[in-house]
Amino acid sequence: MRNNTTRLDHVVLWVADPVAAAAFYETAVGLTPVRVAEFAEGKAAFPSVRVNEDTILDLAPHRFADQMRMLPGSADSAGHPVNHVCLSLPAEAFDALRARLEEHGVPVSGIDHGLSGARGNATRSFYFRDPDGNIFEARHYDD
Predict the structure, then answer these.
(1) Are 113 and 56 in the same domain?
(2) Recorded GO terms, molecular function (predicted)?
(3) CA–CA dist 25, 51 (Å, integer)
(4) Is 59 found in the same domain as 87?
(5) Sign of CA dihedral 7, 87, 80, 24
(6) How many domains does the chain have?
């Protein structure tokens, strides 16, 4: 990891059940859980799942909304998922993710081609929703 570039550190998702959400992201999406046992034991405020060595998704329980005081109106964000979060994967991992989601009965969209993103136009992409209604796009680029 290099400390001389700007990068995405984390995205906080509101979830009804952080342990169940972590299980979904581990089994259906293939992400690595972080602090799930500690959360279940009351030793961590929330669990996370690791996207890569630089980025995690924090799984914040809705009950934390009243504790969001960093800016006026922050508590109002509970239950309002972002438009979508996009995961960029190598082609093989893209195919594996789609197959794993389908095996877990997670509805997925059709395949789109050429959608614009951080690295230009993606070769393929599709969308899926987590159990809390957060929408994800999965894509890959030809490198």
Answers:
(1) no
(2) dioxygenase activity
(3) 10
(4) no
(5) negative
(6) 2
**Residue with the two structure tokens 């095996």:** 103
pLDDT one-digit tens code per residue, 27-70: 999 999 999 999 999 999 899 999 999 899 999 888 877 776 65
Domain residue limits at 99: 83-143
Q: Specify the CATH number for the domain of residue 97.
A: 3.10.180.10
Q: What is the pLDDT of residues 96-119, one digit of tens each?
A: 999 999 999 999 999 999 988 888
End residue of a domain, out of 63, 96, 115: 63
Report whether pLDDT(91) > 50. Answer: yes
Whole-prediction pTM value? 0.81
